[in-house]
């Protein structure tokens, strides 16, 4: 009797041990297959705080979230703002790269150049660079060939010049103020000059090395032109309110290339939506971190159309009549 009880006890214990072993094995297998996934890290360097650049970053963050990458949950965004200080851009680039992110984003040309100077290995996505090739960031805009690709904010100049002539039928001379320190600006000015001259306009250019010279140069310019054009230029964007103030005194209209700057005092433009630039930048980041695409063979993305934006209040102050057809089409 005792032997039978002993055998039953041994059998029960063996069964329990066997079941425990199988269950533990299954759990260990489950644990192996459900390892926590690495959260991607994106380093973002923005040149300066400005409504247009801030809107690019907003579009970038919100599109990432729509794609399933929410900051501090499924992705980590390390954001730095250089506040237009070149030495800060350099040190911030080093900081971002030292953390070995999965990708880097440069918002505006100086920020992108600062990142590019520090690494040729980590993928860099350009957020709003007018001409990456002219800025020395890629070998070719269609075939970048390195660790860099991204989005161009190149303006639809032909459409902008046509708009100027529609609003100002007697327009003859237009002044272009730009930064001599920004590589992209000269190429934009050359392009604008070519298009405007084909349309019979005289173009006068006014280069400034920094924001400190904007006031003096604008005073000179307003005495020599019928209207002002500002390219996509970070230095000019920083001093835009100075240009607006002086141009208003001289009753000279400003046609900015960036849509958000119409609200800041320009009269009208056909410009690339800054939020959409951020959205496209995010899409390209996702393609890179998921290994769907490589920067080296991903062409620079260029928008083919822009938004027509007008400032009716400014037009009234300047005594400019906006045609009904433009009013109906435009965002105000």
UniProtKB/TrEMBL annotation:
Gene3D superfamilies for this protein: 3.40.50.2300
SUPFAM superfamilies: Periplasmic binding protein-like I
Annotated InterPro entries: ABC_SBP_TrpX-like (IPR047776), ABC_transpt-TYRBP-like (IPR007487), Peripla_BP_I (IPR028082)
Transmembrane as UniProt keyword: yes
Record key words, sorted: Membrane, Transmembrane, Transmembrane helix
Transmembrane segments: 6-25
NCBIfam families, per the entry: ABC_SBP_TrpX
Protein name as it appears in the record: Peptide ABC transporter substrate-binding protein
Species in which this protein is naturally found: Vagococcus teuberi
């Amino acid at each position: 009797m005792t032997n039978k009880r002993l055998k039953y006890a041994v059998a029960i214990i063996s069964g329990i041990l066997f079941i425990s072993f199988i269950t533990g094995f299954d759990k260990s297998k489950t644990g192996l297959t459900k390892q926590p996934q690495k959260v991607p890290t994106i380093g973002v360097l923005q040149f300066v705080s400005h409504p247009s650049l801030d809107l690019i970053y907003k579009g970038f963050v919100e599109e990432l979230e729509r794609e399933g990458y929410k900051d501090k949950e499924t992705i980590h965004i390390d954001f730095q703002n250089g506040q237009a200080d070149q030495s800060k851009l350099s040190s911030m680039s080093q900081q971002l790269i030292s953390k070995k992110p999965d990708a880097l984003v440069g918002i505006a040309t100086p920020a992108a150049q600062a990142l590019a100077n520090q690494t040729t290995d980590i993928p860099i996505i350009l957020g709003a660079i007018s001409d990456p090739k002219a800025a020395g960031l890629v070998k070719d805009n269609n075939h970048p060939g390195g660790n860099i690709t991204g989005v161009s904010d190149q303006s639809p100049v032909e459409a902008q010049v046509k708009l100027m002539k529609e609003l100002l039928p007697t327009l003859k001379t237009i002044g272009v103020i730009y930064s001599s320190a920004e590589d992209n600006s000269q190429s934009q000015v050359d392009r604008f000059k070519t298009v405007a001259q084909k349309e019979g306009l005289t173009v006068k250019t006014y280069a400034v090395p920094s924001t400190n010279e904007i006031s003096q140069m604008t005073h000179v310019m307003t005495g020599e032109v019928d209207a002002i054009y500002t390219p996509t230029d970070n230095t000019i964007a920083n001093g835009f309110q100075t240009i607006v103030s002086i141009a208003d005194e001289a009753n000279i209209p400003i046609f900015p290339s960036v849509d958000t700057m119409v609200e800041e005092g320009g009269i009208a433009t056909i410009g690339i939506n800054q939020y959409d630039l951020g959205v496209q930048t995010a899409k390209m980041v996702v393609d890179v971190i998921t290994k769907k695409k490589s920067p080296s063979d991903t062409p620079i993305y260029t928008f083919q159309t822009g938004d027509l934006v007008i400032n009716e209040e400014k037009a009234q102050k300047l005594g400019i009549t906006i045609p009904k057809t433009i009013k109906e089409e435009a965002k105000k």
